[in-house]
Design a protein that fits this description.
Elements: E1 6-9, H1 16-23, E2 27-30, H2 39-46, E3 51-54, H3 62-67, E4 73-76, H4 86-91, E5 96-97, H5 104-119, H6 122-130, E6 151-155, H7 159-172, E7 175-179, H8 185-191, E8 194-195, H9 198-204, E9 207-210, H10 224-227, E10 235-238, H11 247-255, E11 261-264, E12 284-286, H12 295-315
Parallel strand pairs: 1-2, 1-3, 3-4, 4-5, 6-7, 6-9, 7-8, 9-10, 10-11, 11-12
Length: 328
């Protein structure tokens, strides 16, 4: 391997990955500032590198890719890659790697936690204490709902959805239904999960948890019309990508009691404005996109992003490649 290959990392990440790259003889440069890079800055740095280790916040569109068509590969520090124009990367022969599986446990924990927080109004009640509103016992005020025996609907039953199903069935004995393009035979065997149509998913789910990728097919999918097909007692959870739901329509559905509650780790847009009315709603819990924010998950992502690079340079194979046609 050419020991002079240069890797540019577009934000400070856990040292496990960069250290591994240096150990293998790569020259590693890391963006030093605590802010996202502007595209012109990213282009300038990428032009001086052979490989880009990018984050989901980076805009890697056709313009960027054509300006940096010399790149040997892009290794994404994320599972999702909707920030990268994959067709253009493939056309230019730039393979893209990602980091699946290592954050499944951490992200499913957030989905599971949001579900409980919404069902029992954790965030609202905590804010009520801070505002000095903890008064006398009121038997009929601010009641939540129990989850035992309810139906969990999963939109996009992959590795994260599998862990979510395991959590919900183990803790609450929840029934599992799911909507996928293809059947998940393992889920059907382990959890007695049942594949249903999209409309059936909407009509039958007490909790609907989104775990799909953001694509042309899913962008803005959960809108006014879709929310109207859900149960008025249902809880909507999104820990995948904010672009999958239409935020104004979600607020309207909650305000008009079309659905009962919502838990979001992703918003549309991000970051969410501090004055967004969703933040003041009683049956809503929102987190600032922290699905992978554990030591274990971020270390795993850093290591996997580095291993994708090392494997490709050594053997021509990227263990987790989203566009293998770019290599072929």
């Amino acid at each position: 391997m050419n020991s002079k290959l240069k890797v540019f990392v577009s934000r400070k990440i856990p040292s496990l990955g960069p250290d591994l790259l240096r150990k293998e003889g790569f020259e590693v440069k890391i963006w030093p500032e605590e802010r996202p890079m502007q595209q012109d800055e990213l282009i300038q740095e990428a032009k001086q590198a052979d490989i880009l280790l990018s984050l989901g916040e980076n805009k890697i569109d056709p313009y960027f890719l054509n300006e940096c068509r010399h790149l040997k590969m892009i290794s994404q520090f994320a599972v999702g890659y909707d920030n990268i124009h994959i067709p253009e990367a493939t056309r230019l022969g730039i393979p893209v790697g990602n980091t699946p599986d290592v954050l499944s446990e951490a992200t499913a924990d957030i989905a599971f936690g949001l579900m409980i927080a919404v069902s029992r109004k954790f965030f609202f009640n905590h804010k009520m204490i801070l505002a000095g509103g903890w008064g006398s016992f009121k038997p009929t005020s601010h009641l939540g709902q129990e989850l035992a025996g309810k139906t969990l609907g999963i939109f996009g039953l992959g590795s994260i959805g599998m862990v979510m199903a395991q959590r919900c069935q183990g803790a609450f004995g929840m029934k599992v239904i799911y909507y996928n393009r293809t059947s998940n035979e393992l889920a059907e065997k382990q959890f007695n999960a049942r594949k249903v149509s999209f409309d059936e998913l909407l009509a039958q789910s007490d909790v609907l948890s989104v775990h799909s990728v953001l694509s042309d097919e899913t962008r803005g999918l959960f809108d006014r019309q879709v929310f109207s097909k859900m149960k008025p007692t249902s809880i909507f959870i999104n820990t995948a990508r904010g672009g999958i739901h239409h935020e104004e329509d979600l607020y309207e559905a909650l305000q008009n009691k079309v659905i009962w509650g919502a838990g979001l780790d992703v918003t549309n847009p991000e970051p969410m404005d501090k004055d967004n009315p969703l933040l003041q709603m009683e049956n809503v819990a929102i987190l600032p996109h922290i699905g992978s924010a554990t030591v274990e998950a971020r270390d795993g992502m850093s290591k996997l992003a580095a291993e994708n690079i090392i494997s490709y340079i050594k053997s021509g194979v990227i263990p987790h490649c989203v566009n293998p046609a770019a290599i072929e």
